[in-house]
Fold:
Amino acid sequence: MIFFKKRRSRIGIYGPPNAGKTTLANIIARDWTGDAVGQVSEIPHETRRALRKKDISITGANGNVITIDIVDTPGVTTKIDYKEFLEYGLEKEQAIVRAREATEGVAEAMHWLREDIDGVIYMLDATQDPFLQVNIMMIGIIESRHLPVIIVANKIDLPDASPQRIRSAFPQHPVVPISCIDGENVEDLYEKMVSCFR
Amino acid sequence: MQGVQIDLISEERLENLTSMEKIRMILDKVREGTIVILERGLEPEEQSKLIEMTMREILPDDFNGIEMETYPSKEGGHLFARLLGKHPSTRLTVIGPANQLRMIRKDRDLISAWVSSGEPNAP
Structure:
């Protein structure tokens, strides 16, 4: 007899640079496995490789459990200029290397999305304009692949945050407002993940 | 005469190209400093590949990537259509070099852009 075992779902955390993707990946990994996924930084494109944390089991309030791999991806953009990194104090050579690695990372993230991702957490900075072309494009790409998606409105601890603006931009998807800094509403995200990614 | 070339590409011309031909044509033109306006935008899969290929072609002090804007889709506002899984058709799209094309304003029926001739310190 042949047994078919369904592989774990791979949930990609996507979004523009500096939305808090790696911070969220670390919170999820620490809460449910005790480990971290990657480093965080104020300099854009700190994550330049897709990082996978395997075997994360999340239990919902009703006892339902999902076991997933979390894939933390580089921030998606259509442009990268190494000169932006000079403003953060990097030397020119360091900035060029960082930019090259960032371009490779974004290309890799797009490839993952087309080939290896089963669901998406789309992470947005709630203080920024959600109608940016890159967000519209990415949500369109995710929808065209029929992937389940949860939109996370991060940084609600900041005074300019407007999760409602994000809800207006993407009314067809669940939006969970959270603060990765103080952990506000992270439990709500886990509940939504258990229901969406089963 | 100095200036910026703008190519307006009709839906009919785009229909006769494969996905890779479209992406290659767009990137070749944009890398030469041309602003490309597509009468009908790219499909999501093509947009994904355009981002990926753009990233692979970025070079320091040469090509920083692309700026791209499109009108929100006509059906995009209809929640019912989206809930039924209908994918909105793509609309007019403008693509240019990131160091030359800057979007000023975008509404449901208006894209306002600023185009420079490529000076590195353009506003």
Observations:
- Chain B touches chain A through 31 residues (CB under 8 Å).
- Chain B has a mean pLDDT of 84.
- Chain B has one domain: 6-115.
